[in-house]
Amino acid sequence: MPLGGCSAILHLVASYPKVAACAAILGVGGTQLSSLQLEECDEKIAQCRSGAPSVPVMPLPMNPIVTAIETAKPIVVEEVLPEALVIDLCKGAPVLTDADIFTVSGKPFLWKHGGADPVRGHAAEPFLQKLEYTSAEREYFMHKVATGQYARVHLQNGDSVGRSTSGSGKVMNNTIVQFSPVVNTGANYKNDARMNVYTYSQNVVYNGNCVERTVTLYEPLVCQNWSRPSDTVRLLHPVADRREDEIFE
Fold it and tell me: Within 10 Å of residue 51's Cβ, how many Cβ atoms?
């Protein structure tokens, strides 16, 4: 087996004859070496003396194998926004026409005497029928009157109270106040300006639109002659915004 360490090779060369040292360096037996063996031995000795390594260096592969490491791709989450919810406030509501909307019309009646021909002391139900309220509306208003659920206003000269009733059973359309109402703290006094207002609101379909219809009942305290102004209609959303599949919760 050939001797590869430079320190050992130089020790052999310094301690033994050249042929014996080269035989040991080359790892061959015998005392005779060929010229090629001697040249090989001289080359090793020269490399050791010059400081060059006697052990050959293995070259790196021409095409090193590189293992590609895939990096994780980021997950893109798309935010899906919900569609705007359109609520049909009139789903299942009554459908009304112009004939169902009460409107005050006709020649004005000038109400000149505040306490004349009062309804006070009579049952209200027959008078509310004369004002063309439905049975459901009359029931609602009678409950409001009985429980005192009203808004208090004060009449002024020139105000309209719409269609009004009287104790004798007459009905006057387009009634206009033509006396001077008095604001006082007493009760049942002449030209009393106080008037109670009762309202009933309902969502309905009117001309295809969703509207809030408000029906009103007036109670002038000067005579308690029940009166009805025109119904009011407030648009909630037009027919273009209503869909058959919309749900009101």
Answer: 7
Strands 209-220 vs 151-154: parallel, antiparallel or unpaired: unpaired
Q: E strands of the chain, at which residues?
A: 95-96, 109-111, 151-154, 160-165, 171-177, 194-206, 209-220, 227-228, 232-237
pLDDT, position 58: 45
Structure tokens at 87: 């609520």
Residue spans of the chain under pLDDT 50: 1, 54-60, 244-249
Distances (CA, A) of 57 to 52, 53, 54, 60, 227: 11, 9, 9, 9, 119
Q: How many domains does the chain have?
A: 2
In a domain? residue 195: yes
Residue 187: exposed, middle, or buried by beta-carbon count in 10 A (0-12, 13-18, 19+)?
Answer: exposed
Render 221-234 in DSSP notation, one character per residue: TTT---EE---EEE
Of 213, 216, 206, the closest CA to residue 242 belongs to 206
Q: Which residue range(s) make up the domain with 153?
A: 95-241
In contact, 9 and 25? CB cutoff 8 Å: yes
Instruction: Give the number of C-alpha atoms closer than 13 A to the C-alpha of residue 240, restricted to the C-beta side.
Output: 0
24, 129: one domain: no
- Residues 112 and 193 grouped into a single domain: yes
Q: φ, ψ for residue 109 (rounded to 5)? A: -105, 125
- The tens digit of pLDDT for each residue in 41-85 reads 888 888 888 765 544 434 445 555 555 556 666 766 666 655 555
